[in-house]
Amino acid sequence: MQLDSLTSYAGRQSLFITNAKSTKNFGGAMLHLPHNLSGDSIELSAMIKLKDVDSSSSLGFMLRIDPGVFFDNLMEPKINGTHDWREFKIKAKLKPNITSTIALGIFLSGQGKIWADNVKVMVDGEDITTSSEHYIPFAKDYSRIGASGVNEIDATKKTVDRLADLGRIWGLLKYRHPTVALGEENWDNQLFQSINLVASADNKHEIEQHYMEVLDQLGISEVHSAKPLNSDAQQTVDYEWIDDLPYTPILKNRLKVYQHTTFEQHHYIDMFPGTGGAKITGEFTYEHLKNPDVGFRLLSLFRYWNIIQYLSPYRSITDTLWNDILSIYIPKMIQADEQIDYLFTATAMLGEMKDAHTQLWSQHEALKLISGDRSIPVRLKYAEGKPVVKEISLAHIDNSKLRVGDVIIRKNGRSPEYILDSLRHLLPTPNQAVIERELSTKIARSIDEIVYLDIERNGEQIQLEVEAVASKNLKFEKDTVALKRLVGNILYINHGYITRKDIDERATEIKSANGLIIDIRNYPRDFVIFELAALLLPRPTPFVKFTHTGLKNIGDFHFTKTLEVGTNTEDYYKGKVAILIDESTQSSAEYHSMAYRMAPHAKVFGSQTAGADGNTSAFYLPGGLYTTISGIGVFYPDGKETQRIGIVPDVLVKPTIQGIRDGQDEVLQKALEYLDSSEK
Asked: The Tail specific protease domain covers which part of the protein (predicted)?
């Protein structure tokens, strides 16, 4: 990188960046502005010339406003090739109240040559290099603060009730107040300040006065407050709690104004195109916090509770009423002053949704110290209500003390039932199938190098000392063949490996089979639902409808039009179809199953699936804890639910202990019997 005085657009020199070698690395120049900027919008522009930037390489032109205000680097789609001087622009809304840094950059990713000249930064149409009137100090970067400033809290019932009301009010204003929706208020910091006042106030009048002051500070906003028509709403936000607040009608009415606010844009919510699911944005991760203090722990609870309150399509089917969760978990979060206690409490809190999509996906080191990162070298599967050795790791087959079909009676002196009781609050538990699936993994895991097992083998009880090895080194046999022909011209489709290309290339073979087996006891490698269903159905057939929320009325979930698969054709597969499912069939796999079972002669064989269908919405809780929720509701065309229930098989088939010992796939066998019979 250097200044080039021979090639320029308008001035004496240009910035020249070159790289002669093919590489995945990038290089260039970046500048952090020395001042924050006041105004409505910022525009970064430059004249840029490219030469021999190959197809795997790209120009990068960047504007970044932190923390999390705006980022774009013009890398999608790639800008490459050779072209003369051309103007590039990036424009963004300014949020000076929360902006801690503004960075500009130009770089080359890969191979080629670029020149840049006439770089300009404009605020509301004015060049900031010719005037300093827009210069203001940067805001404090609250995304990196180490302490919330919240004082020690005594978790009395009175305090817990006050804080529960605060969590609801804070969330209502976060998602429904126009000023907060702009993202110009540090709403996390507002919560910390409110916690201190609410927890220490002498009486409810002081608290009400505080809420009045907060509303006054947010200003009077013009809002659309007419109650929407919800005749087609599957789920609406419950605002009855406002009437139950121990405050005057004046405050209650001021809060009710924002119940039905509509937005074009929102700092904390965007919508995924196509599916309509909510994209959760604008949240600080606070990933630098190893042991978040009580303020951050309560923020974790309040953030999660309100995400479910406004953005979950399944809020109404939890075991515990969602409105009660705050009062249950406020004392737990207050008392969770050790890192591991916070992680356990957060995990249990996430599990209250009973959603297999919602658990602590980030592998926190502190949790590894509890659950371990070692495992006995087998894969367990529940059969007849017991954990059974289903497979042995490839590297341990020859010297394994365990055999396929061994039943685990006790691990380190503890029964599977005891282990489940101790871990149930930490497991996603939408249904029994998922409980057994997750427990199989937990029983196999270990923090110790030696695991003491009591097993049952062919009616005999045996005690074993089994070495636990690093979980990451375990490898099991995989069937990676996408399609294979079985006896009798039965075509077996491995749904975990088949691709759209496979279906296109082998469509004739699929349609000429005497029977089809679609094994979805796995997760789809590709999204083949419409391509494969088109071969199975004679006409467009309804198979699913969704619910989703939107910025017009956040928190109310409405049904979409019913979605169809299949086309009008006589050239479709007219034989019998057997679909195989079990507890590993989850999310996209369940969605595909719903479509395939619409085929005229299709039957579903197996057992209960995970009951976690639909696209996910991801977010972080303080401490960098990563999780997701089901972001759209998935229903059958008649409105019947799939969440927690899963795909209900036409023919219930569960593995048996003897079947596992004999190496039989009993679900597959039952499906083959159907395909070989005269039954339709």
From this structure: 471-654
Confidence label for 223 from pLDDT (cuts 50, 70 and 90)? confident
- How far apart are alpha carbons 555 and 557 in whole angstroms? 6
Strands 515-519 and 576-581: parallel
Q: Hey, which residues does 47 pair with through a beta bridge?
A: 87, 117
Residue with tokens 């009008």: 568
Rounded to an integer, the average pLDDT of 103-114 is 93
| Contact (CB, 8 A) for 311 and 549 | yes
3-state SS string for 140-178: CCHHHCCCCCCCCCCCCHHHHHHHHHHHHHHHHHHHHCH
Cβ neighbours, 10 Å, residue 439: 21
For the cut 70, the answer to whether the pLDDT of residue 517 exceeds it is yes
d(CA 435, CA 428): 7
Cα distance between residue 584 and residue 610, in whole Å:
7
Q: Is the pLDDT of residue 408 over 80?
A: yes
Helix, strand, coil abundance in the chain, percent, nearest 5:
30, 30, 45
Contact 388, 402 (CB under 8 A): no
Q: Which of 59, 75, 72, 74 shows the shortest CA–CA distance to 110? A: 59
Q: Are 404 and 477 in contact (CB under 8 A)?
A: no
DSSP code for 512 = T
| pLDDT for 49 | 95
DSSP alpha helix (H) spans, 244-290: 249-256
Show the tokens assigned to 61.
Answer: 């032109």
